[in-house]
Specification:
single chain; 272 residues; nine-stranded mixed beta sheet; 9 strands; globular; HMP/HMP-P_kinase_dom; ATP-binding; Hydroxymethylpyrimidine/phosphomethylpyrimidine kinase
Length: 272
């Protein structure tokens, strides 16, 4: 039958080295047996050492990609990645409202895992206003959650309160990812607040490695893939957490400096 294969789309930028952004999302969709499509928002020229140049796609081109996919395919989940400026965020929000692409996973991509701001303040405010209310699941890293909640998130109780605040901004389900930037830590704990008000923690051992490019992209992409297949949010996130842990714990040697995670390891874990 036409469109019988489960389909999901990533709305993101392209990293030319394949480690993050749209390439990581498509690796993750493939590994979870979901046919992946892509709406390109930006492109960067870079490698494992650095990024040398970047281009943002014109809003009309982004909108046309939405139109063409909606006219032909049955997309059951979408996820967002790098949305570089207010114009990009506006056109993505407009089209996510216009077309039914199923569950929406919002990976904020506003602050790096090391705490560096990626968006100008105006774009950040647009993100809060336009995209958070569309989220079936939002997946901020620790620093993004601090920014979005204006809280220190210094202990589990504050993290749980922060998730409740994010839910009040419109996100149905909130996953606040734990810090993983200290060599002294032994575990990484993420907190999930579900739409029904129940919460749960997910904990995995901390892995010391510089092969972590695409970690957040992959986590949100696997969540989207599982939602597209009909899994509930808690189960989708449980699968995504285990997939990403295996992908980090089993290094792949690509590039000279900061490398990608190993999607094959995540895939093989569930197919043994």
């Amino acid at each position: 039958m036409t469109n019988e294969q489960v389909q999901a789309v990533t709305i993101a930028g392209n990293d030319s080295d394949g480690s993050a952004g749209m390439p990581a999302d498509l690796h993750a969709f493939f590994a979870r047996h979901v046919y992946g499509m892509g709406i390109l928002t930006a492109a960067v020229a870079g490698n494992s050492h650095s990024i040398a140049a970047a281009e943002v796609m014109p809003p009309d081109f982004i909108a046309k990609q939405f139109e063409m996919l909606a006219a032909d395919f049955h997309i059951k989940a979408a996820k967002t990645g790098m949305l570089s400026d207010s114009r990009t965020i506006e056109v993505v929000a407009d089209n996510l409202n216009k077309y039914d692409f199923g569950a929406i996973v919002i990976d904020p991509v506003i602050i790096t895992k090391h705490g560096a701001m990626l968006l100008e303040e105006a774009a950040y405010e647009t993100f809060k206003k336009r995209l958070i209310p569309l989220a079936t699941v939002i997946t901020p890293n620790f620093y993004e959650a601090q920014k979005l909640t204006e809280m220190e998130l210094a202990n589990p109780q504050e993290i749980e309160a922060g998730a409740t605040l994010l839910q009040s901004l419109g996100a149905k389900n909130v996953l606040i990812k734990g810090r993983h930037d200290s060599r002294s830590q032994e575990k990484v704990s993420d907190y999930l607040l579900l739409a029904d008000g129940s919460g749960m923690w997910f904990t995995e051992p901390y892995v010391e490695t510089d092969r972590v490019n695409g970690t957040g992209d992959t986590l949100s992409a696997v969540i989207a893939a599982e939602l597209a297949k009909g899994n509930d949010v808690a189960n989708a996130i449980s699968i995504a957490k285990k997939f990403v842990h295996e992908a980090i714990a089993n290094e792949i040697n690509v590039g000279h400096q900061f490398g990608p995670i190993n999607h094959w390891a995540g895939m093989n874990y569930f197919e043994q």
